[in-house]
TrEMBL record:
Protein name stated in the entry: 5-carboxymethyl-2-hydroxymuconate semialdehyde dehydrogenase
InterPro entries xrefs: Ald_DH/histidinol_DH, Ald_DH_C, Ald_DH_CS_CYS, Ald_DH_CS_GLU, Ald_DH_N, Aldehyde_DH_dom
Presence of the UniProt keyword NAD in the record: yes
Keywords, sorted A to Z: NAD, Oxidoreductase
Signal peptide from the UniProt entry: none
Active site: E249
Family: Belongs to the aldehyde dehydrogenase family.
Domain Aldehyde dehydrogenase: 21-476
Organism: Snuella lapsa
Gene of this entry: hpaE
Alphabetized PROSITE patterns for the sequence: ALDEHYDE_DEHYDR_CYS (PS00070), ALDEHYDE_DEHYDR_GLU (PS00687)
Length: 480
């Protein structure tokens, strides 16, 4: 049994009120240990540590900040196997996925922002005719809050922390209470890398107690959050009267639009991935598949055949494609949507059932599920399921596909498969999403703006956008 502790001011602490949560392992449903359910007092201690560290950290030369961030990145890489196993135990994802995607990306996040901060620059404006020059300072905000979800635990936790500290802020961060382990391990790694104490403080606990205490703290003036849309709306409501800076990366219900003229093999293989990677628990997964009518039947047959080959099973087995869903509660939610689909009269083309894995009978496993729908307005095409469930629907005209793609309240990402350049550019202009992938999916260049429109959030992460978020700009006007 592992006891996870808060990491505050460079050392590990139990929660002040002695309140703990169980940490469940989705692989077999067992309790692996406990984590603090931190109170506002713990958050206050984390804040005080961060505030004390700020004057020195914000004045630390960029080269030195960069060196420490890159050292964290190297240490993450050197502990790849252990971190990948820990992520898999906490989250249920295949170890191979954590090893090839989650942990390398966490390391990349630190390396990228360690380098980016040395390249970040501000503007100047010569006020011609006024004998004046304006220049913009981009100063760190102070103490900022980072709150992350359970689907890509270390990947998304570090995607927020790395730019925040690279920009000179000190951080109070909370990982999801469902997947706390790799965030806990990160504390020791940061200490080993020489990150001064108090720069990063990690408090564990539930959203409604610990998370909310961070959002409501009067002096934590910027919040970067990734998670569900409802939680994002709640956080926005709390933060608005306090005029906090907010970055909200929320849910998605992303269209995957397939035209007959695409590179079929590449599309088919990528669509399997964009549908079911990480058990479909990525906000960017293409959960609504729209296929041009002339290739619909062929695609349906090929896709189902391919999906049926996916192996659901023990996340530690290197042949496993689909591991466990993150929790009993989440699996129940996904199963409920499958039941809704049946009630609404849609056809389950494959999957739809819970899987009992030999030796792991209490784990949370579901078959990859493909559902044919005839009406885009139905609940399973409008609401975020966030699991291994996709819908299929044919379309006849480009305008029809576009209309359906934009018909949801979300606007995170879209994928378009076509070899017609004009069409690709036309759709890219008109899709109401923050990200459009053409003939690919999840190809990530960390310099690009990342985030959604509509109910998928506000603000953009990534590259200099993140460094802008984590700094206040101040204009200085000098008359000469
Ligand atoms: N990136 C994404 O798009 C994600 C979307 N989701 C969606 O959200 C649904 C709910 O999943 P949850 O785990 O409940 O996500 P959530 O939005 O409740 O949790 C995300 C993070 O926010 C924290 N949190 C929750 N309530 C809070 C509050 N009042 N104040 C501050 N922090 C708070 C949580 O502790 C966690 O660290 C999922 O079924 C899925 O549809 C979930 C995770 C990631
Ligand atoms: O690649 C990224 O930066 C982000 C990927 C996925 C999410 O943000 C998510 O699933 O929440």
């Amino acid at each position: 049994m592992e006891t996870i502790q808060n990491y505050i001011n460079g050392s590990f602490h139990d929660p002040i009120n002695g309140d703990w949560l169980d940490n469940y392992c989705p692989v077999d449903g067992s309790v692996t240990g406990k984590l603090p359910n931190s109170s506002a007092e713990d958050v206050e201690n984390a804040y005080i540590a961060a505030r004390s560290a700020f004057p020195s950290w914000s004045q630390t030369p960029l080269d030195e900040r960069s060196r420490i961030l890159i050292r964290i990145s190297e240490l993450l890489e050197s502990k790849l196997q252990d971190l990948a196993e820990a992520e898999s135990v906490d989250n249920g994802k295949p170890v191979t996925l954590a090893k090839t995607i989650d942990i390398p990306r966490a390391a990349d996040n630190f390396r990228f922002f360690g380098n980016a901060t040395t390249q970040f620059a501000s503007e100047s404006h010569e006020s011609v005719g006024f004998e004046a020059i304006n220049y913009t300072l981009r100063q760190p905000i102070g103490v900022v809050g980072c709150i992350s979800p359970w689907n890509l635990p270390l990947y998304l936790f570090t995607w927020k922390i790395a730019p925040a500290i690279a920009a000179g802020n000190c951080v109070v961060a909370k990982p999801s209470e469902v997947t706390p382990m790799t965030a806990y391990l990160l504390g020791a790694i940061c200490a080993e890398a020489g990150l001064p104490r108090g720069v990063l403080n990690i408090v564990h606990g539930s959203g409604t107690i610990t998370g909310q205490a961070i959002v409501e703290h009067p002096d934590i003036t910027a919040i970067s959050f990734t998670g569900g849309t409802e939680t994002g709306a709640h956080i926005a409501k709390l933060a608005a009267p306090k005029f906090k800076k907010l970055s909200l990366e929320l849910g998605g219900k992303n269209p995957n639009i397939i035209f007959a003229d695409c590179d079929y093999r590449n599309m088919l293989e990528t669509t399997v991935r964009s549908s079911f990677a990480n058990q479909g628990q990525i906000c960017l997964c293409g959960s609504r598949i729209f296929v041009e009518a002339s290739v619909y039947d062929k695609f349906k047959a090929d896709f189902i055949m391919r999906v049926k080959t996916l192996k659901v099973g023990d996340p530690r087995d290197k042949n496993t494609d689909i591991g466990a869903l993150v929790s009993q509660a989440h699996m129940d939610k996904v199963k409920e949507y499958i039941a809704i689909a049946k009630d609404e009269g849609h056809v389950i083309l494959c999957g739809g059932n819970q899987v009992v894995v030999n030796g792991l009978e209490n784990g949370y496993y579901l078959e990859p599920t493909v559902i044919e729908v005839t009406n885009d307005a139905c609940r399973i095409n409008q609401e975020e399921i966030f699991g291994p469930v996709v819908t299929l629907m044919p379309f006849n005209r480009e305008e029809e596909a576009l209309q359906m793609a934009n018909s949801v309240k979300y606007g995170l990402s879209a994928t378009v498969w076509t070899n017609n350049l004009n069409r690709a550019m036309r759709l890219s202009n008109q899709l109401q999403t923050g990200i459009v992938w053409v003939n690919t999916w999840m190809l990530r260049d960390l310099r690009t703006p990342f985030g959604g429109m509509k109910a998928s959030g506000i603000g953009r992460e990534g590259g200099f956008e993140a460094l802008r978020f984590f700094t206040e700009s101040k204009n200085v006007c000098i008359k000469y």
